[in-house]
Write a structure and sequence with these properties.
- The protein has about 80 residues and is of the alpha+beta class.
- It has one domain.
- Helix content is about 30%, strand content about 35%.
- A hairpin with a 5-residue loop joins strand 4 and strand 5.
- The protein is globular.
């Protein structure tokens, strides 16, 4: 489970096995028992969430938008895209 970065107690990461065929670039976010998945391409968009409030999701989405370039670069480095 490659970690991309941490922010304010949230861990942003990929799973090593992202499906076959592999899904488009996305990021998983965990804080405690709460979890969310955001698509990064073609644009940042919430895919699913468990246990995060709408305010948390909005805040996390903004961080992902700010760091989308980093996330895409790490995705391509890890998965060889």
């Amino acid at each position: 489970m490659p970690k991309v970065f941490e922010w304010n107690g949230y861990k942003f990461f990929f799973f090593s096995n992202e499906g076959k065929p592999r899904e488009p670039c996305h990021i998983h976010v965990r804080k405690g028992a709460s979890l969310a998945k955001f698509w990064v391409d073609p644009e940042v968009k919430l895919n699913s969430s468990w246990g995060m409030s709408p305010a948390e999701l909005n805040q996390v989405e903004k961080i992902i938008e700010e760091r989308a370039g980093l996330i895409r670069r790490k995705w391509n480095e890890y998965f060889g895209a």
